[in-house]
Amino acid sequence: MSEYTLTADVLGQGERVVSQYPRAGTTVRRGSAIQLDTTGQLDPAADEG
Fold this sequence. Notes:
three-stranded mixed β-sheet; mainly beta; single chain
């Protein structure tokens, strides 16, 4: 991730990633933050549109 200047925000204290935003396969810009959800509470649809 550092090669592309991406950062990761981990949501929760879980040991397993249950969802992520943006979704897998999505093209992201350099310098973007990726959210990794370990709580199961992340709603990617809330930020779309």
